[in-house]
């Protein structure tokens, strides 16, 4: 311990002023700087508290009216988060003001006051009031006693924190789109920067108050407010209709005041379980560990060490194990990070896949299923490739086929997709122009067809490399190739031939032609089967075709 003048000025090695007990140290209070400046500090904190609370409430009210006329606007997130930060700052100022007011009152009380003031009054007056008046008096005294035990500053701190949590949660929307609010946004962003500069001046003043114990915790809350203001101004300056990140950032900055508000609520709840003595100097309740992390360089372990020492008197520096952990933390972290980076070179290939191993961006090997080792990222990487997985692909895709199909009940009517009659249109059918002949005249006609391909990526290493590097979209490549083949093949066929003797060899001819084109493109795709699911006249002409055939 280091001691200055008077026992009340005892300071711990962490720079934390020990609290004063009026029953022991009242005579030396006038010599303590924090008690000498208590009246002036209380007035200053009151002015700052009113300004911060007024601006914060104004921001929330403006956000409410903006939500009425323009819901989902960027202004909601900016105003609410900025107002929430100001309300938390006001809560901290109010908590510090209550401590300063206690010190100002402590200089005015007698040196010794008995814990039972009624002992100084002599005989108590006889209460001859009725039972109702006595009940009201007891209820009033009980309420006042409970309020003194909890503390008015604790209730205010919890109330401000709840308001902040409700406000931030009300505007939380990570799907917020960009907004083009440039004319007014630049002016508001400039105002936020000016306010941030004023808060920076206040933060520097508080950091220089070495004799004021509450100055350092308040400077942390001011830094938190500055960070929120700067982020909000950045979002306003860069907000555009085609930019999403300013809107998302404006919402995400609400995490900082939300975290501080949750911490304040926890501190307020825990303070209910600590005995409150009006004769002992109160401790600042609105001290934020999260806001203390907003420093450069960040020292989270040092902040935790200070918090443990202030709250529980635990000095981690006196424990050998923690001292060793602090010294070994960076070397162990470096070893773990290096080991984790080295393990990025170990790859597990599942049974239904293969992997193309790239070394310095060049493919050197195709890995089969199993465990393989190579250079760590980014010097080596593995691209996944299918290994024998079979796919079925329709030659044409309609918008209805991409929609999610609902399961039909087993006892209900069959689904529309099961209807294979000619007079109905089907999902995967494609209209095709084919040759037609009527006597000595040649013409063309339209038919509907449903052709499907069963394919897979070739099982050889060359096919895996070709499918990975030569084809960006294999299904689209197969469809485009099949469309070209079908147009060429059906140009010389008539409907009667397709429905008759040429139906058997049609799928084989189409499959060979598509496979030949895919091999010429070096796609690495292997066509296993070609299925002509349906081929018939259009649905509107099906009845006429049946009538002609019947005649």
- How would you sum up the global shape? elongated
Largest β-sheet summary = 4 strands, antiparallel
* Strand coverage percent: 5-15%
Report the end-to-end length measured between terminal Cα atoms: 116 Å
Integer-rounded radius of gyration: 40 Å
Count the helices. How many? 19
Structural class, by secondary structure, is alpha+beta
What is the chains' assembly state? single chain
The residue-averaged pLDDT reads 78
Total domain modules: 3
**Helix share, percent:** 40-55%
Number of strands: 9
Taken in chain order, the helices and strands follow as HHHHHHHHHHHHHEEEEEEHEEHHHHEH
Outline the low-pLDDT stretches.
Answer: 1-15, 110-128, 399-404
Pfam families: Band_7 (PF01145)
Protein name: Band 7 protein
Keywords: Membrane, Transmembrane, Transmembrane helix
Membrane topology: Single-pass membrane protein
Q: In words, what does this structure look like?
A:
- This protein is of the alpha+beta class and 551 residues long.
- The chain has three domains: 27-108 and 141-286, no CATH class; 318-385, no CATH class; 388-397 and 420-548, Band 7 domain (Tetrahydropterin Synthase, Chain A, 2-Layer Sandwich).
- The protein is 52% helix and 13% strand.
- Strands 6, 7, 8 and 9 form a four-stranded antiparallel sheet that branches.
- The radius of gyration is 40 Å and the shape is elongated.
- InterPro entries: Band7/mec-2_domain, Band_7, Band_7/SPFH_dom_sf.
- Residues 344-549 form the Band domain.
- Keywords: Membrane, Transmembrane, Transmembrane helix.
- Its main location: membrane.
């Amino acid at each position: 311990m280091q001691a200055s003048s008077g026992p009340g000025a005892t300071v711990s090695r962490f720079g934390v002023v020990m609290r004063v007990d009026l029953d022991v140290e009242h005579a030396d209070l006038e010599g303590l700087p924090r008690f000498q400046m208590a009246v002036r500090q209380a007035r200053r904190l009151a002015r700052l508290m009113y300004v911060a609370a007024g601006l914060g409430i104004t921001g929330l009210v403006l956000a409410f009216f903006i939500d009425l006329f323009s819901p989902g606007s960027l202004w909601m997130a900016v105003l609410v988060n900025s107002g929430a930060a100001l309300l938390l700052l006001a809560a901290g100022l109010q908590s510090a003001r209550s401590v300063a007011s206690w010190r100002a009152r402590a200089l005015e009380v007698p040196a010794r006051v008995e814990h039972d003031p009624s002992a100084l009054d002599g005989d108590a007056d006889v209460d001859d009031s009725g039972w109702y008046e006595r009940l009201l008096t007891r209820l009033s005294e009980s309420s006042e006693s409970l309020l003194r035990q909890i503390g008015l500053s604790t209730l205010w701190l919890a109330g401000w924190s709840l308001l902040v949590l409700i406000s931030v949660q009300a505007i939380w929307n990570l799907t917020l789109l960009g907004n083009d609010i440039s004319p007014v946004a630049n002016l508001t962003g400039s105002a936020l920067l000016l306010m941030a500069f004023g808060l920076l001046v206040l933060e520097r003043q508080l950091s220089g108050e070495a004799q004021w114990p509450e100055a350092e915790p308040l400077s942390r809350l001011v830094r938190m407010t500055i960070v929120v203001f700067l982020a909000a101004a950045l979002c306003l300056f860069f907000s555009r209709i085609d930019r999403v990140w300013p809107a998302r950032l404006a919402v995400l900055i609400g995490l900082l005041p939300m975290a501080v508000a949750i911490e304040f609520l926890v501190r307020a709840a825990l303070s209910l379980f600590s005995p409150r003595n009006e004769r002992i100097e109160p401790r600042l309740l609105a001290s934020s560990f999260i806001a203390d992390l907003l420093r450069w360089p960040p020292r989270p372990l040092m902040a935790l060490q200070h918090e443990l020492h202030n709250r529980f008197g635990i000095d981690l520096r006196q424990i050998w194990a923690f001292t060793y952990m602090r010294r070994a933390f960076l070397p162990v972290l470096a070893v773990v990070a290096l080991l984790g980076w080295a393990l990025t070179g170990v790859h597990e290939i599942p049974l239904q896949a293969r992997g193309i191993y790239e070394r310095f961006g060049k493919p050197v090997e195709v890995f089969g299923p199993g465990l393989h080792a190579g250079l760590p990222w980014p010097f080596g990487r593995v691209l996944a490739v299918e290994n024998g997985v079979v796919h079925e692909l329709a030659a044409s895709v309609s918008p209805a086929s991409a929609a999610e199909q609902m399961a039909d009940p087993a006892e209900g009517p069959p689904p529309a997709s099961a209807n294979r009659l000619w007079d109905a249109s089907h999902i995967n059918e494609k209209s095709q122009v084919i040759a037609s002949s009527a006597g000595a005249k040649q013409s063309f006609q339209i038919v509907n067809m449903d052709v499907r391909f069963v394919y897979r990526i070739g099982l050889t290493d060359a096919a895996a490399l070709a499918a990975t590097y030569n084809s960006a979209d294999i299904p689209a490549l197969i469809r485009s190739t099949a469309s070209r083949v079908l147009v060429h093949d059906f140009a010389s066929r008539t409907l009667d031939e397709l429905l008759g003797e040429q139906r058997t060899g049609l799928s084989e001819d189409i499959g060979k032609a598509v496979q030949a084109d895919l091999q010429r493109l070096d796609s690495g795709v292997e066509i296993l089967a070609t299925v002509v699911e349906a081929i018939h006249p259009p649905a509107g002409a099906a009845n006429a075709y049946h009538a002609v055939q019947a005649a």
